């Protein structure tokens, strides 16, 4: 292959990668506003044609899952940021979980897509980075004394999963905060088998 052909191919690959990122970013923003937004609106916001969108994401669920994976990857790397911007590890943990809920909550149109068989690999791949972020926040809370030692990140993720099921309104947010307080009250004691 000539270097001219390689350069052209490299340029096409860069353009395709740029289009993919633009589509995911547009989908993230528009799904947050309306999970049923037409994909033509996503393509328009991304500055690509609908054919380009479908080449990257043949189905709506493919795009939803890509947006989910992108958000989880981004969020999983922000545990340190949450600790730096909050006055306590507990406040950082709550802040981080509220952000996670914002990414996953049904308002993003992810609820049904994340329960499909096709989503299982994406969800599985997000488990490691999410668990690592929770472990970092958990360790900081144990060090400050706001959570007792002995709790497992997987257990806390399961406990906090209610956050992406509360309503996407002021009442739901208030309910979520009450439930978070209940979870954290329970986490002040070491886990005990029944």
UniProtKB/TrEMBL annotation:
All residue ranges annotated as the HTH tetR-type domain in the record: 17-75
Keyword Transcription regulation: yes
Keywords: DNA-binding, Transcription, Transcription regulation
SUPFAM superfamilies: Homeodomain-like
Keyword flag Glycoprotein: no
DNA-binding region: 38-57
Pfam family, one: TetR_N
Ranges annotated as spanning the membrane: none
InterPro entries in alphabetical order: Homeodomain-like_sf, HTH-type_TetR-like_transc_reg, HTH_TetR, TetR_SbtR-like_C
Full protein name: TetR/AcrR family transcriptional regulator
Organism: Gryllotalpicola koreensis
Native organism taxonomy: Bacteria, Bacillati, Actinomycetota, Actinomycetes, Micrococcales
């Amino acid at each position: 292959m000539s270097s001219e052909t390689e350069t052209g191919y490299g340029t096409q690959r860069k353009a395709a990668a740029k289009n993919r990122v633009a589509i995911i970013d547009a989908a993230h923003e528009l799904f947050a506003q309306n999970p049923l937004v037409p994909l033509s609106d996503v393509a328009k916001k991304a500055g690509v044609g609908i054919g380009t969108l479908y080449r990257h994401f043949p189905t709506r669920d493919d795009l939803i899952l890509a947006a989910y994976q992108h958000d989880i990857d981004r969020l999983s790397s922000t545990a340190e940021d949450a600790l730096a911007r909050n006055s306590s590890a507990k406040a950082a943990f709550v802040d981080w979980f509220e952000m996670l809920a914002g990414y996953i909550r049904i308002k993003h149109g992810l609820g049904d897509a994340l329960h499909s068989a096709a989503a299982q690999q994406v969800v599985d791949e997000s488990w490691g980075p999410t668990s690592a972020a929770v472990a970092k926040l958990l360790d900081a809370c144990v060090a400050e004394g706001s959570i007792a030692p002995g709790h497992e990140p997987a257990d806390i993720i399961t406990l906090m999963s209610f956050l992406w099921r509360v309503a996407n309104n002021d009442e739901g947010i208030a309910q979520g905060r009450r439930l978070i307080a209940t979870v954290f009250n329970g986490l002040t004691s070491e886990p005990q088998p029944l």
